Each structure stands twice: as C-alpha cells, then as structure tokens.
Amino acid sequence: MTISSKNSACLSLVNVILFSALAVPQCAKAEDPTPLRYGAGVTYQRDSNLFRLDGEATGEVQSDNITSGYAYLGFDTTLSRQRLYGNFNIGRAHFSRFSQLDYDKQDIKTGWSGDFPGQIQTGLVWTRTSQLANFADLNLPRRNVITRDAVRLDLDVPVIASWHIVAAGTVNQSRNSNTLDRGNDLDGHSAEGGVRYVTNYGNRLDLVLQQTNVDYPNRIPQDYGDSAYHERSAYLRALWSASGSSRLEGQFGYLQRRNEHYSNQDFSGPNFKLGWTWEPSGSTVVAVTAYRTMGAAGDNEYEAAATKALRISPVWAITGKLSLAGQIEAGQRSYIGAVHDVSLVPEREDNFQSLGVSLHYDLARWLGLDLGYRGERRDSNWPQRDYIDHTGTVTVQIGF
C-alpha cells in the first residue's frame, strides 16, 4: 500500500466517523432518540511469553508489559424499516521492553440492513481490523501489523410461503506491514447462494453453495506457498430454538481447496460448527461449541491445518453491576501440505488448551472496570513448537 493510499484510507475513516457523529443526531429528530456511545479506555496487559517460545528448548522466554489506549464511537439507529449501525475503536499499543513493536490498532464495523427493495432483506457491512500478528512459529520474531478489510452483501428474497432464496457476496483483502511478510498479502472474493426455510416460530434452515477465490499478489509460487487458490463448499446451516431457554446453531458442510500450482497443498474434507446456548436462569448463560475447520492455522497466518476443538463459555451476572465470564477450550490441529520428507520428520500435529476468566464491574454509569486472565498451552510433536503462556489484563473504560 502506497503512502497516498494510506492517507486516503485515513481521510475516509475520519469522514465516516464525522458523518456518523453528525448524521445520527439529525436522524433522531424523525424517530426516537438515537443511541450514541462514545468514550475511551486504557488496558494494561502482562504477557509472560510474548514470542510464544518453548522455554525448555530455547532456555529463555521473554515477557513484557503492554499498555493500550483507545477511543471508541458507536451508534445504532432505525428509520422506518432501515437500520444503520457502526462501531469504531481506534488506539495504540505500547510495549515496555520491546518498544519497537509499538503499533496503531483498529477495530471497525459499520453497516446497513433493512427491507430494500420491497420485501427483500438486504444487509451491507464493512469491517476493518488492524492488529499485531501472532509471534507463534516465527523463527525470527518481528513486528508485523496485519490490516484486514472486508465488505459483505447479504440478500434474503421471500419466494413462497416459508421458502426464501439467499445470496451473499464478499470482497476482502489483507495487508502486512513487514516487508518479509508481504508475500502473505491477499485479495479474495467469494459468492454464495442457496435456499432458506423459515418456520412460523422463526427457526431457520439453509442449504448453501459457496465459491471462494484468493490471490496472493506479491507471491511467486514456491515449494512452501502457492500464489492463488480456489475453494468450493456446500453446507447446511440451522438456527433452531429448542425451547425458551435453549438454542441450537450449526453449520455442516464439505470444503475443497485447489491450489493453482502445487497439488500437495490441496485438501478437502468436512467442516462443521455446532453451538448450543442454554440459559438456565435470567442471570446465567452457558454456550458450548464443537467445531472442525480447514484453512489457516489458528496460531499463524501462513500455514493451513485441520482443527477440531470443543469450547465451553459460561457467563454469570452476579448483580446488575457485576458479571463473571469464563472460557475453556481444548483441541487438536493437524497441518496440511508438508514440504519436507515425512519419513525423516513426521507431519506436524499440535494439541492445544486454553483457559480464560474475566470480571466486569460497573463502578458508575459511565465508568467500567475489567479484570482478565488467560492461560494457553500448546504441545506439538515438533518439540520446539511447544509453549505455555499466561496473560493478565486490567481495563478501565469511560463511556457515555
């Protein structure tokens, strides 16, 4: 990305924020008062193993304290049957020991949805994230900020009775700030279409076909990385309320990826994600998710793997001002497309576990406090890829 394009992106972002701040109050004159949220916060984080290294193999694990300041703006308004919403979170992270890793981060999502034209349900959303890449699996840890943009259009067309036609299109790109990682810049687009059945109670069942094309514009095909790939998938997804306190959500399908040059990196197989949400009381929610995915490995941006895992996430509203949330996850990751002699070095497999807990307390209507802890462990059949990490966070947020 050139300097001029960066400046254009920044100006566009400023224009969007100013438009949001000015337009929302004007809309409020026609309808009910528009919810407008704005504020700022500071997060202090202690990371015990910043570069995700195996302490037994390297003999040294680096820790650091990270301070992040941010400002945010959010709005959500409805005019007639049209909804306009946005959330903008922009900040900067500062590392105490490794200041060369300091970076600006963004988390933006804004969109529109409504019945247009006619009874066609339409949704358009733009998301942008800008985050420091994970250091796991890097032989030479380096600062690399990945900026991702995606624009998605969804259509739901009523046909007859409970039957609908659904379609969606997505355009996305990913850009890396470090020169050594520019080969992982990507441009992608996907299209999907299918049928939907909606019951009288709002339960939903979809059958969808999807085509995805991805190009790496800065990559020359090599043994460990192709310059483009194409994916085809078919899946069945459902959203079903089993009872007033229980809900099922799932997606089951089959994915096939074909690379342009190297068939040893092709793969295909089942993908699924099944979630169950249970609300035993008005103050307690438990979500259980089991999934199997094929694609980018969870700890890096440049390798593909088949990942299967189970996640449990409970939330308890202790009082109106105090809530406790947790998450535990365990799974296995099998890497795809080996570029080495598997008779000498086995294909890589990782087992991973994580445990997280967070406490939120509203000190006042405009002041919030969050305390959090997350522990991660990875055990690999490649011993130097093992790591254990502990992260603690404290966040103070002022919001209106």
TrEMBL record:
Pfam families cross-referenced by the UniProt entry: BBP2_2 (PF10082)
Lineage top rank: taxon: Bacteria
Keywords: Signal
Entries under InterPro entries matching the protein: BBP2_2, EpsL_proteobac
Region forming the signal peptide: 1-30
Name of the protein in question: Exopolysaccharide biosynthesis operon protein EpsL
Species for this entry: Niveibacterium umoris
